[in-house]
Amino acid sequence: MVDDSIPDSSRRTFLKAAGAAGAAMTVTTTVSADTGTTRKRINLGIGMTTSMSTAQAQVQSETPADAEIYRTSDALGFVSVDVPEEAADRVLEAFENKPEFRYAEYDVQMHAFEAPNDELYDQQYSPQQVRAPQAYDTTQGSSDVVISIVDQGVKYDHPDLEGAFGSVKGKDFVDDDDDPYPDSMADEYHGTHVAGSAAAVTDNGTGIAGISNSTLLSARALSEEGSGSLADIAEAVRWSADQGADIINMSLGGGGYTDTMKNAVSYAVSNGALPICAAGNNGSSSVSYPAGYSECVAVSAVNENEELASFSQYGDKCDVASPGVDVLSTWTESTSYGEYNKISGTSMACPNASGVAALGLAADPDLGPNELRARLKNTAADIGLSEEKQGSGRVDAKNIVEAGTVPDNQPPTVSINASSTTVDAGQAVEFDGTGSSDPDGSIESYDWDFDNGATATGPSATFTFENAGTYDVQLTVTDDDGASSTNAVSVTVEEPEDEDNQAPTVSIDAGATTIPVGAEVEFDGTGSSDSDGSIESYAWDFGDGTTGSTATVMHAYDAAGEYTVSLTVTDDDGASSTKSLQVTVEEQSGGSCGDTSANSSAQGYLRGWYDDENFTFVPDLDDPCQATFNLDAGSRVDFDLYVTFDGRTPSTYDYDARSITYGPDEQIVVDDVDPDQEFGILVDSYRGRGSFTISVDELGK
Question: According to DSSP H, which parts of 62-170 are helical?
């Protein structure tokens, strides 16, 4: 997996100038190489009986206050939410155990599978290698066959591509608009190269010949850096199928098995589209995902001599091989080949296979996705490599357009056994599907449905039913050609004998327990738990006549004093527990502690909600008594200010004081400042991008 190359944070330092009469400043910047350190994205699969509005409301109420819903998909049934990294594991664990959600998993970045290019050749060889010219006597392809390129954006006005696009060019899932054109011609060439291999216009007297004359769609799900969110890619696959794509080319991968992407490729096949995916470029003996899903065609790369490319991944899930070394195709900028270039990767092998599949579909338009997958494999040419390296063989255009009817695939037989079919609520049941078999192939996947919104995968599963009732537990097995069968077993769950309910345990934390008047502080009760059930409600009493009702809350006090903050949590059986802590609220002195003053300031720029900058500050005055930290920013942003009093680097979850009002400007006043005291400062973007000034006004005695 490749991380976004834009750094999330930088660190700056205020230094006191030695021997200066007034305040002086030296600024140094260190850019972290570790991106994505402030937030993590979690994808949550919605249960069968849970509505999208209910799921969104539950996500908003049971995640930290600064969490944000990134994307929702009714068709695929998931909600994608961005949460602070410090809270991510806790949020993931909480939603894994909620019956309203089928799964909870981290989003992953997938990236384009392009390998480094060592040298260029003067000719195009891949159409000849897959025997496309011999197929053209039968068909050069059909505009009725639609190939969707889920990738970076495609330069759809390229002279060799514009004839392959219709009025709908595609959709941009990175920038969330209807124009999938590349943002950067220099960096965003991958999708254009892939599109040309599959379907650059053939026999037009211009440039190269694509494998097939098909209609193209561009589903831009990878940024100019070549990576993209799993949630965006899954939605791009869903959209492609809904737009009528017959083939979905995915020259990308990474991150391993996820339910979100599994559901997306299953949706595609169910709606008439065959996903064809690059095997991956790290040379290992297993293919990457999404190529590893049984719904997809996994494509390895071979060179001009039909040897496995050194970078190509392979393994028992490899379906076919295709040319992927020094492939000449369309390009976004001018090179020594004109508007074309040669690069290598399983990303390049994948669209050659997609083009061959498109020729097969043009020759036999009645083929469904599973039949087309079987036809592509059954007509591949054996080039003498092992099955792990070539799958069924190298794709062959002549064979696929001349092929007869593919024999009907026989569906698998499902065997399902339960350790017990009558149990008490809360008792685990073991389910075994290992006796299932396939008469003409192998079983690729096992999918369990426990009749209450919960699911599982694998040949066996263990599940605990929490509520009484009768459940029809279904097992669906799918074979290597996409055929599936389902069987079920009925389990009766009875109420156990009454037992005493255990009251929940309360955890209460505060961002600070000594705060100035008017400053907001976060109170966190998410660490509360219930040993024999779940927590149903949170009730806060802030000791000043105000209350709250969510797991985490923000509160500011209007008057100085000592306050008792109480949290009462109630579980699903009505038992409750309460815990309290003391908060001291102090008046701010407001700039009257001394007659001498000094000022320091620095400027910075934040690129969006994921960005922040750190500073440190040491007083310049010999006998300081107060420091006022001021943040000034543009009117269209919402930046927040965090300060630590001991010099440690603050974060949005570790600070001694903060100011997070709505808007661009913040202020924190600190009294009783010591001459050698060091402060840590964090400026964080809650919303928007732009420049800012951070200044410190000192008062001295």
Answer: 85-96, 126-129, 132-135
Secondary structure, 3-state, 265-321:
HHHHHHCCCEEEEECCCCCCCCCCCCCCCCCCEEEEEECCCCCECCCCCCCCCCCEE
Catalytic sites, residue numbers? 151, 190, 347
- 156 φ/ψ angles, rounded to the nearest 5 degrees: -75, -10
User: With contact defined as beta carbons under 8 Å apart, do 405 and 142 qualify?
Assistant: no
SS3 label, residue 230: helix
Distance in angstroms (rounded) separating the CA atoms of residues 527 and 94: 10
Q: How far is CA 518 from the centre of its chain?
A: 38
Q: Which CATH architecture has domain 417-494?
A: Sandwich (2.60)
How confident is the model at residue 498, as a pLDDT? 54
- Strand-pair partners of 115: 344
Which pLDDT score, from 0 to 100, does residue 22 have? 26
Tokens found for residue 494: 């009875």
C-alpha radius of gyration, the chain, whole number: 30
CATH 2.60.40.10 placement within the chain: 417-494, 509-586
Fold of 9-35+591-700: Jelly Rolls (2.60.120)
**Residue 585 phi, psi dihedral angles, 5° rounding:** -110, 125
CA distance 86 to 84: 5
Does the pLDDT at position 285 exceed 80?
Answer: yes
CATH architecture of 39-107: 2-Layer Sandwich (3.30)
* Residue closest to 602 by CA, chosen among 12, 1, 7: 12
pTM of the model: 0.55
The whole-chain average pLDDT of the chain stands at 86
Residues 102-118 pLDDT 10s:
998 998 887 775 433 32
The rounded percent of the chain whose pLDDT value lies above 70 is: 91
All CATH 3.30.70.80 domain ranges in the chain, comma separated: 39-107
Give per-residue pLDDT as tens, 130-157: 998 899 889 999 999 999 999 999 999 9
Give the model's confidence band at 123: pLDDT under 50 very low, under 70 low, under 90 confident, else very high: low
- Alpha carbons 352 and 347: distance in angstroms, whole number: 9
Banded pLDDT at 307 (limits 50, 70, 90): very high
Where does 121-402 sit in CATH, by number? 3.40.50.200
The half-sphere exposure of 422 on its side-chain side, counting CA atoms within 13 A, is: 0
Domain 509-586 has CATH 2.60.40.10: yes
- Spatial CA neighbour of 303 closest among 197, 210, 212, 383: 383
Percent of the chain's residues with pLDDT above 90: 59
pLDDT of residue 407: 56
Residue 498: CB atoms within 10 Å: 6
Question: What is the pairing mode between strands 509-510 and 520-524?
Answer: antiparallel
Residues 166-207 pLDDT 10s: 999 999 999 999 999 999 999 999 999 999 999 998 877 788
| Cα angle: 323, vertex 180, 248; to 5 degrees | 40
| Cα dihedral sign, 345-369-223-256 | negative
